[in-house]
Each structure stands twice: as C-alpha cells, then as structure tokens.
Specification:
Layout: E1 2-6, H1 16-27, E2 39-42, E3 50-56, H2 59-67, E4 72-77, H3 90-101, E5 105-108, H4 111-115, H5 121-129, E6 132-136, E7 147-154, H6 156-167, E8 172-174, H7 181-187, E9 196-201, H8 210-215, E10 220-223, H9 228-237, E11 240-243, H10 246-249, H11 252-265, E12 268-273
Parallel strand pairs: 3-4, 3-12, 4-5, 9-10, 10-11
Antiparallel strand pairs: 1-12, 2-5, 6-7, 7-9, 8-11
C-alpha cells in the first residue's frame, strides 16, 4: 500500500453534495451512459474535510480511510454496477456497513474519469508514456473513452521499457507479427523490426477495442487487461497489443482529480494505492 498526500489547509470543509456537484460539472458526468452511478454513492452524513482517494472502493481502502479519519473516499471503481445483485448483503453489505458506521461518504466516477481530456486515465497514461493524443478511437464520440495518440517511431521493445518505467510493472506484449514455427525461425534473421508510431489507448478492461484500433490504422493498442481471444486478434489484425494492468493503468486519473479538489477547496487529499497485480 502506497500513499500520496496533499496537505490540509486550516479547517475548510465542504458538503458531500457540493463536492459532488463540482466533480459532476468538471468531469461532464451527465454526458455519459455508464455501467454504475457516477457521483455520490454513499452519503456518510458529515462535512468533508479529509479525503482518501483510490482506484477501487475495496474493504482494504475503506479500512485505510478509517485509519486516516477520512470523511470521504473518492474512487474510479465504486458500487452498484449493472447486473450485480441489488441487495446490500455479503461483501457489499460489509463494505457499506463500515462506511455508514464511520460516517464516510463514497464518491465514484467511472467513464467520466476515463475520458476527461486533461486528467482522465487515458490522458494521464498518454502523458506518462510520452504519447500525444490526436483523436478519438471512435470518431463519433463527443466524450471519447478511447483515444489515438502518436509518438516518434519506436520499437515494441522501446515502448515496453517506457511502460515498465512509467507503471512499475512489465506489460504483456503480444506482437502483431506472428509466423508459425519453422517459418518464424527461418525469417528471424531477415525480419525488419516494426516501428510503432500510431497508438490506440484505452485503460482498464477495454481489450476488445483492439479491433477498432486496427480499423483506425493503429500500429499498436494499449489497454489494461487481456483475454484469451486478444492474442489471436492482435496476430490476425497485425497490431501489437500491450496489456499493462487494469489497476496500473487507472491510478493516475483519480490522483489527478484529488489534486484538483485539494487546490480548489483547500482540503486534505491522500491517495492510497492498494496493490493489485491485475
């Protein structure tokens, strides 16, 4: 578990509703049809002075927030996802019980935090990797959740090193150039390394957007997760794929939102990273 702090300023407080209104507006939350409600998900019922941010509202993050005497938790992955049981029982009940018992509000932003052009997960990841976002992965979207970026031509090995340094983990790289067994060995000495310069990017669990990235002429596609089918898609579409970790690719957006809130309202904001290799 790691943490990043923004210092506390005097006795400034804000209501959960006012903080949510600010974030809703800043992130254009109403523009998205999402898989879970964005904004205030659990009202802890007290003024907010100290905030803990994190990627996912797991019990470990709640326990850390309790230890920090936080009034609110802000996350990218909150609760009440489409398709999950509606009852507040089991694991979800335990989590929400702890929030309510300690008067901690939970505020979550999913797609709006992926898509924001300045502090969104895609924008921050591109910045970390030295990529320049130029257009939407799906051109018709007014608030794109996937992007296309450019960079100086580089090898897959070079991009792998950059990702490893930026995220602190080695990505799984699937080459878009695949030959079968003997052919692969025979051509190894004469193959010309493919240079990557047009990169599709969408953090988290967006591996299936690889087909759209290929259709948009990308040399490579970066996301968080990988499925069994993704390997075959990359090889058959001729596009390199980099699976960089769902959690690892979505840490920066919520940290950046926390920094904005601290600057705007003078609140204490502490990012706590609950380690997750997935």
């Amino acid at each position: 578990m790691t943490a990043h702090d923004t210092p506390l300023s005097a006795d400034t407080t804000i209501t959960a509703q006012a903080l949510t209104e600010f974030c809703d507006d800043y992130l254009s939350a109403s523009a998205f049809k999402d898989y879970a409600p964005n904004g205030l998900q659990v009202d802890g019922g007290r003024p907010i002075r100290r905030i803990v941010t994190g990627v996912t509202a797991c019990e470990a993050l709640i326990d850390a927030a309790i230890a920090e005497d936080a009034d609110a938790i802000m996350v990218h992955h909150g609760y009440f996802w489409k398709g999950e049981p509606m009852t507040i029982t089991g694991m979800k009940g335990q989590r929400i019980r702890k929030l309510m018992q300690h008067g901690i509000s939970l505020i979550g932003y999913h797609l709006p935090l992926d898509a924001h052009p300045k502090i969104g997960n895609n924008a921050k990841l591109a910045e970390m990797l030295g990529l320049t976002i130029t257009e939407a992965l799906y051109p018709h979207e007014s608030h794109p959740v996937g992007n296309i970026a450019t960079c100086p031509p580089q090898s897959a090995e070079s991009l792998t090193q950059t990702i490893t340094q930026a995220l602190g983990r080695i990505p799984l790289h699937i080459s878009g150039h695949y030959q079968y067994l003997a052919d692969e060995a025979a051509d190894a000495d004469t193959a010309v390394p493919k240079l990557l310069k047009r990169i599709g990017i969408c953090t988290g669990g967006a591996q299936d957007m690889i087909e759209q990235a290929a259709a948009m002429g990308c040399d490579a596609y970066i996301s968080g997760e990988i499925s069994e089918r993704t390997t075959h898609s990359a090889r058959e579409l001729g596009i390199d794929y980099f699976a960089c970790g769902h959690h690892a690719t979505e840490r920066a957006g919520i940290q950046a939102l926390g920094d904005i809130i601290a600057q705007q309202f003078g609140l204490s904001v502490r990012f706590i990273d609950i380690d997750n290799p997935a």
